[in-house]
Structures are given as C-alpha cells and as structure tokens.
Amino acid sequence: MIALELAYWQETVIRVGLAAIVVPTGAAIAVYLFLFKLISFMQSRLGPMEAGPHGTMQLLAEVSKWLQKEDIIPDNADKRLFKLPPFIILGSTFLMFVVIPAGPTAIVSDLATGVFYVLAVSSVSVIGVLIAAWASANKYALMGGIRAAGQLIAYELPMVLAVVGVVIQAGTLNLQQIIFAQSTGEVFGWGGIGNPFVLTQFVGFLIFMVAVQAELSQTPFDMPVAESEVVGGWMVEYSGVRFLVFFLSEFAAAVGFSAIAATLFLGGWSLPTAWFNGWEGSGRFWMHFIGPVILLTKTMALTGVIFWVRFSMPRFREDQLQKMAWKFLIPLSLVNIAVTAILKVVM
Amino acid sequence: MPAPKPKVPGFLKGLGVTARTAKETMFPDGMLRNPIPSPTKGAATVQYPHEKEAPAPRARGVITLQEDNCTSCMLCVRECPDWCIYIEAHKTLAPPRREGGKPRSVNTLERFDIDYALCMYCGICVEVCPFEALYWSPEYEYSEVRIADLLHDKERLGQWFETVPDNEPYEPGAEVKKKPVSRKENK
To answer: How many Cα atoms sit within 13 Å of A259 on the Cβ side?
Structure first.
C-alpha cells in the first residue's frame, strides 16, 4: 500500500487538475460515441471518418475551427452580460462533478448533503440561460430563454422529488452512503446483487431520466433551442468559442447527470458486496482502480440511453411539455415518495 | 375513422426502430456470427473520394452535346430558365446531297457553352431539343476551383457525350427504345 501525505493545497491542485481533465474528456467521449457515431449508425450512415481513424479526432478539428471564429457580439446586446453566461453554465457543469464519487476516496469533496448540493448546483445553469437570452437582444433568444426557464423549472421538481425516494430508502443525503446502501442492501431479503435502487425505485428512476432529458434540453424536450421554431433559441447570437463552451457543457452536463443517475440508481462505482467487497480490506484497494472504470461504464450506458431517446423522438409541443411535468410527473413522483415512505416504515 | 391503436406504444416502437438500424449498421452479418462492429460494411454510405458511387443510368449528372446534330436553332437557349446556354453560329455551304445539286446552306456552331455555375439541371433544354443534340449523362465529377471554369465549351460537352449510357429496357425482356437519331460512333 502506498502511504502518501499531501498538504491540503497539493490535494486541491490534484483534484482540480483531475476534474479539469476528466470533465472535458467525458464530454468528448460522449460527443464522439453518441453524437457522431451512434446517431449515424441509427441512420445507416458512418458519421465522421476522415479526421483520425474512424473520425476519432473530429471533435479536435471542430474545436480548432470554433476557436478560429470571429468573436461576434450584437450591437444592441448588453455587452458585459453577454460575455457572462458561458462562465455560469460551464461553472455549473463543473461544480456538479464535485460530489460524484468514482471510488472509495476518489471524490473531490465528500459533502454530507451531496444529493442536495448536486441538484442545487445543476440548476444554476438556468440563470446562465436566462442571462444569455436577455443579453442577446434578440426576440428568438428571448423566446427560447423563456421556454428554457419554464421547462427547466418545471422539470427540476420531478427530478428532486424522484431523488427523494432514493434518499428515503438509503436514509442519507451523502452519495458515498447511498452507494454503500445499494452495495450492501438486500432486495426482499436477497442480497445476491445488492440493492441497486433501480429495482426498488424503478418509477423514481424513470421520472429521473425523463427529467434529466428535459433538464439537458435534449430532443423530445428541446423547445428552448428548437431550430425550426425559434432558430436556435437562447443560443442564437452565440458563435465561436462561446458557442463551443455551451456545446461542450451541454455534453459534460449529460455525462454529469448520467453519473448522478448511475450513482443514485445503479450503485455508482461499487459492485454488489456479495460479488466483490469494495468497502474493506484488499477489495477496497482494488476498488481505487476499477471503481472509476465501473462508474464510467454505467455513466456511458445511461448517456447512451439519453442520446438514444434524443435521436429517436420528435419534439413535444410546448403545452404538452408543461402538462407532462405538472400534471403527470410531479403527482407520480409524490405518490412514489408516499409509497416509499410507507414501505420504509412498514418493512 | 380513428387511427388504429398501435400495439406497442409509439415511444418504444421508435426506440426499437433506431436500435435495430444501429444494430444492422454495426453488425451487418448478425451480432453472433461476427461480433466485431464493421459499420463501413453495414452502412449505406459510399465514402466518396475513396470509392465511387455508380450513378443510376438516368441520373441527371451533366448535359452533353452531340455537336453534329445541333442546328443552332436556339430553342434551348430561349427555353433555359436561367439563360446559361450560349450559342454562336454562322452559315456555311455544305456539299449537295445528290450529285449535281446545289450546295446546301447549313449552320455551323462556333460556340456552344453551358455555364454550369448557373445551370439548375431542370433538363428543359434536353426536352425541347428537336434534333436530339442534347443528352443527359450521369457523369458528375466536373467541379472546378474557379467559378469561371464551370463555363464548359462544346468540346468538353462533346467529350461527355461518350458517357451517355444506352437506353435500358423498361422491364426485363422488353424492347429497348432506340435513340431516334444515330449517335456519333454509328455514323
């Protein structure tokens, strides 16, 4: 075993550096695997093939193209506000990754109320979207921004309420503890696969994934950026490196939300204790290495599902979107909470 | 009449369609027989600069000129919606058809240019030509670096005439429609 004593600032530098590498890499993998390749295969075409073997370097080519573009700010735009949203949205995305554990100790900050923190931080991006919409001084941007605000607020609720079921069942707000509860739990007295909450909280999982789809404004819920209705929505005036930031943080957020879903519902970095005890002894040592791989696999599988739905579904109408959140998902998640709470007490 | 209710909810059916297409693209031989993804084989894509697509015989690739058939009647020039055909001609004397007759006066083409920067491939010129001088060819590789170079003259248009495919039978075994005017090589 390696015993390494690091000062607080050294640990912080390592953590921040790792996050700065992991987040864009995760986004890049998601873009390549799903946006470039999966959608192409679903349409019986190949996608990018020229830049690198099988187009693997395509994103680098795209990024270098965006970086070369002119920095355009509309005349009527509020110049200072216009420059702000990329930082807010990128910051909100990065902060999400702070509490996601990738191993027994591989976590930037093991907050006691991690679930609360992650849900709060992820909704900060709405403010960035609204600022972008308002500062652009463009009617399409404003329409898109209003749609985004309505949609993101409407789907924040079912998302939070779906997570409450998990929190009740695990009895903690700490993500590591939630993973521990899934790894060592039992489904109706049988502990063969632990208790990944996707089994007992299946309704919550579905609600969470639908809400995530909407939070990320992925098609069927892409009204804020619907190109055929509001020509790009709140992003309409953004180009070049600012658009690049929006684009990449969209995918980083997709990866982040999938990682949260994997942590809350699929058991995170851990395996069922019955298979491999990652919590003590030598298992804990090996989990430092295979934990991140397990988390990445689960995360990418869930990201794949998000993009699969995105590439298969047409867009909802704006009123259908609101109806679905307020009249269906929120009542359903309230029922889910009530049932979970009753069963938790009874059983 | 209300539409019949789908047996599988539309949402799942849609997901199934995309998943099946992705599977067929990635594993064209079936997942069990060849579990290594080979999308280059399964996809419908033709990777153009590396491999060439065989265009359909009636594809509207480029308009070609059979110069001998052209009488400079200017019908194509006048019918062209965006005026991309340029014809200049002068009258010359041709030897008489029969011995002892007087020489015929025929139009000789000096210039027959089509500006493919303007052409919108409507094919009206091919339709209106009464003398079967214009034909469609499926040839498509004639892009140029300079836009002015897209103005192709009658020599270039005549070269493309060699690529005009023969008529195909409408169905197997049917009589093949003959081109009413014999082509250059048949003369």
So the answer is: 33
